[in-house]
Amino acid sequence: MNRTTRRIAIAIGWSAALVIAFATLAPVGSRPHLPDAGPDIERFIAFLVLAGALATAYPRRRGMILVLTVGLAIGLESAQLLEPTRHGRPHDAIIKCLGAIAGVAFAVVMDWLSRGLRRAH
């Protein structure tokens, strides 16, 4: 991976972490929404982007990225119990964890495909 791709992935990954933390812990009326997407889709995509970007940025740390993003999903969902307008639910944590798993898997597959293309040329 080149330096520019890595920098972009780092910026996307850490920005996603900040947006996710805000969206998860802010009062429900302040939470951003994707048009025409339900909350489960939003949760899944958010953690897919987070984990996928960080797994792309730090390819030698993918296992750690997976553990940390799953831990973040569970931790933030639990922290919602501290905000009166929010509620932490196991279902939501599971959707977020599945997004994190899919994000890391996507990064692994894209890396594998790019290596195969480089070898073919």
Automatic annotation (TrEMBL):
The keyword Transmembrane is assigned to this record: yes
Regions crossing the membrane: 41-58, 65-81, 93-113
UniProt keyword list: Membrane, Transmembrane, Transmembrane helix
Span of domain VanZ-like: 41-109
Name of the featured protein: VanZ-like domain-containing protein
UniProt lineage: Bacteria, Pseudomonadati, Pseudomonadota, Alphaproteobacteria, Hyphomicrobiales
